[in-house]
Structure formats: structure tokens, C-alpha cells
Amino acid sequence: MEKHELVIIGAGPAGMSAAVYGKRAGLDVLVLERGIAGGQINNTDEVENYPAVLRASGQELGEMFKSHAMKFGTEIRRVDDSRVEIRDGRKIVITKKGKESAEIEADAVIVATGAHFKRLGCEGEAEHIGQGVSFCATCDGAFFEGYDIAVVGGGNTAVEEACYLTKFATKVYIIHRRNEFRADRSAVAKALANPKIVPVYDTVVDKIEGAGMVENLVIRNVKTGETGNLDVAGVFMFVGQEPESECVKGVVDMEKGGWIITDERMRTSVEGIFAAGDVRSKFLRQVITAASDGAVAAMSASAYINSKE
């Protein structure tokens, strides 16, 4: 059976940071990733809040993370799926790629699998995914050149991505269930100053309609109960996140929703398994906090491995 000292699941900012610190600590490191190195940051048009990087696209920053890890000889392996098992006290990572599966024994594992955007759950959403319903402005924004569209959500991601979408759309409605956005003041100010953006407060989407492609949203004011229609060609959902923690489900302790519980050293309830980044229970999910988590997790893993030796 293949064996490595440290196996990191996920190649986003947390995983790449962990790889850098793990390799610098002299560990044999393997990173497993089922998508693009850099993680969800690749879907972000612009990053302005990562210290020392004044401005970069998400893809540029993601490539920087990858290049930094590769500089130290980190092996990044593409897989379709990974899960962790404990067998007689040994940590086994089972991977799948196509029809083939493999098993890797690890002295320590860092789960850095991140999170994904939630679905809204309204009628018509599932049927229109890929036909006007999207969760990635960078991926799909250009398809709506010259159309009116909507963004659902009120946090930083929703407000910032709405600004990005004005590059293509003639009008962008931001639909939020509260009477003000939750995003940072600077992001809100920038959005409200854009003549293409129309805020729709105290409102939820009850139904997405359209023969094939999205054509209309049935919206409802949560205070008055009044319903109405919004004629749009697309709708982007940014209503929170869910953790990608299936790989250790039933193995480590999690809180409601599947967020992995750790201590300040990123240790989970299972000795030798650590978690870092957006997948864990925490207050703030940003690139900088993910990278910080990765560094802490790697050094904790190194201390754990050395203590066993």
C-alpha cells in the first residue's frame, strides 16, 4: 500500500498553505484534489483583501498558491473522490479516479476540502440549473451580455459578484430577505453607486419560471406578503455555504450542517486528523483565514508525526 507522512485533501488556499508549511517542515506531502488547484477562489473575479496582494483575479491568486507549493516539490494528484477510514488505528485515504480506486496510508491527514454555495431550494431552481440558474458569476456572467439578471443574497459574495456582473448585464437586481445588505460597507457603497444595480430588499424568491431558460422570478415581500414578478434572463445564487466534509463523515465530530469541529491547533476529534479552511466550524471564511488555518494544521501535523517517531 502506498504511504505518505502527510496527506492533504483539497488544494485550495488552506491545502496549498498546508503543503508549503508541511514541505518546509521536511514532511513527505501528497495533496489530493478533484478540481482546479486554488479551489473556489478560481470563481472570484477580483481579490482585494489578501494582504500584500493589492489586486488580483481569483485565478491568478489560485495559481500563485499552487506555484508556491510546487516550488517545494509538493505532489498534487488529481482524483475524482477521496474518503478517510480508520483501520486498526491506521489512517487510510481511499481515492477514486474513473473506475479505479486506490488506498493510501497516512501518518497524518489534513482535510482542506472547503465549502460550496447552497441552493436556494425554491420551486424551479433545480430544473433551471445550467439554464439561467448559476452559482458562479465568473463562469457564466458573459452569457448574459445585454440581459437583465438577478443575484440572490446579501453578503460580500453576493454584492461583489453583482458588481462584476454589471460588466455584462444591462441591469442587476440584488434580492435580499433583509432590509439592508450584510456585506462590508465598502462593498455595499460600491454596489449602490453603480447605476446598473437595483436593490430589492425584504424579498425572497418563491419560484423560478421559464420554458427552458429562465424567464421570470416570482418574488415575495417578507413584510407585506405581496407577490410580484421579475423579468430576468438569469439568476445567481449566493445564499450561504455548505461544507465539503463527506470524506470524513462519521469519522470526526461535526456540528450541525457538517462543519468539522477543531481546536485552535486544527485538531479534530480523531488523533492525527486535522481540518483547515472553510470546511471547519469557524467565524470567518476568507482566503486569509484559510491560508492561516493551513499553516497551523501543517505544523500541528508535523508535531504529531514527530511525537510518534
Q: Give the helix tally.
A: 6
By DSSP, the count of extended strands is 17
What is the residue-mean pLDDT, rounded to a whole number? 95
- N to C succession of SSEs: EHEHEEEEEEHEHEHEEEEEEEH
Q: What would the CATH topology of the largest domain be?
A: FAD/NAD(P)-binding domain
Task: Provide the gyration radius in Å.
Answer: 21 Å
What is the domain total for the residues? 2
Shape: elongated
- Largest sheet, if any? 7 strands, mixed
How would you name the CATH homologous superfamily of the largest domain?
FAD/NAD(P)-binding domain
User: In which range does the helix fraction lie?
Assistant: 10-25%
- Report the span from N to C terminus: 20 Å
Q: What is the top-level CATH class of the largest domain?
A: Alpha Beta
Return the structural class.
alpha/beta
Beta-strand share of residues: 25-35%
Known CATH architecture of the largest domain: 3-Layer(bba) Sandwich
Q: Which segments are poorly predicted (pLDDT under 50) over 5 or more consecutive residues?
A: none
